[in-house]
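[Help] Beginner question about ligand-bound structures

Sorry if this is basic. My supervisor gave me a protein sequence and a SMILES string for magnesium ion and asked me to "get the holo structure". I don't really know what that means in practice or what format the answer should be in. Inputs are pasted below exactly as I got them.
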Amino acid sequence: MRVLGIETSCDETAASVVDDLNILSNVVSSQAIHKKYGGIVPEFASREQIRALTPIVESALVEAKSSFEDIDGIAVTCGPGLAGSLLTGLNFAKGISLASNKKYIAVNHLEGHLFANRLSDTNLKPPFVFLLISGGHTQLIHVKDWGDYAVLGSTLDDAVGEAYDKVAKMLGLGYPGGPEIDRLAQKGDPSFEHFPRALLGKGYDFSFSGIKTSVLYYLKKQEDGFVEEHLEDISASFQGAVVELLTKKAIEAAKFLNIDKIAVGGGVSANSTLREELNSKSEAVGIKTYFPPISLTTDNGAMIAAVGAYYLEKGKSSSLTMNVYPNLGIEDATD
Ligand SMILES: Nc1ncnc2c1ncn2[C@@H]1O[C@H](COP(=O)(O)OP(=O)(O)OP(=O)(O)O)[C@@H](O)[C@H]1O
Ligand SMILES: [Mg+2]
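Answer (accepted):
No worries, everyone starts somewhere. Holo just means with the ligand present. The predicted complex, written as structure tokens, is below.
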């Protein structure tokens, strides 16, 4: 089945053509304008997406050497995300569905981050534990089957990507901060400073506001020039604390469920220390880890097309009355 996937839940405008889990094209356009403000300005995001959608979808089709005639269906994100951005993508998909007389299906963005793993490793089969770590979410999810999920724990405050972006801002780095902190951390000493790890007892919830505040107070008490001089060590110390938490909780959840597979998805799954640590610590206890390629960690249309194909193949599709769901959870149903 050949599906066109469209993703506009945040500041990206992305489109992709996927054919039976083969990615024929994957075009992503990120908006530079938000860098100036150190975060996403929702109104700018949706206005830019209105401009970008037609050329991005055209490029995805051209790159896949496809036309609308070759497409079996259209998949589009309906939530969670920014309402204006989601509406832009959803209405665009409804329009081309009507014009081309192809079925369309509205897709959960979080399920998209999960399906990035299905796309990258077709051997991955449920049940497994899914660690979802992105700009808006930090969750441990029991994937009982594709489409059947139970949330084991979530962040009580900041998402891990959000904590990265806020700490990066404190360090005077650009937006998004995750890749930059990760790059600096590679050259730093993780034992330089011990930042607190909020383990919150034995459960699977997370908290990242404490570590963020402790970095803030730590930076405030330093003399002029110290932070600039030790950017790499501070980044490595922050990253070490975050990775230790994520690794510990993910492995505990897998052990609790007696499951020997952990898949990871979302922007923070690109993190190099996490990839190394989770791999080696899991392997030591007989658990296999799955990470998507870097290109499928942040928002993209291929993961949306993969979810769409799964449900379209089961005979599902969405109606033209479908709405957007800015606060959609991975367990939630849509219309
Ligand atoms: N190498 C990295 N290390 C740590 N964080 C990273 C890395 N690369 C990207 N990130 C972080 O990933 C986040 C973006 O991920 P993603 O695009 O999945 O989030 P989102 O789509 O905005 O949120 P959600 O999927 O929850 O709606 C940003 O916070 C960014 O800093
Ligand atoms: Mg995302």
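A couple of things worth pointing out: Residues 109, 113, 134, 266, 299 surround magnesium ion (ligand 2) (CB under 6 Å). The chain has two domains: 2-114+296-313, 126-292. Feel free to follow up in the thread.
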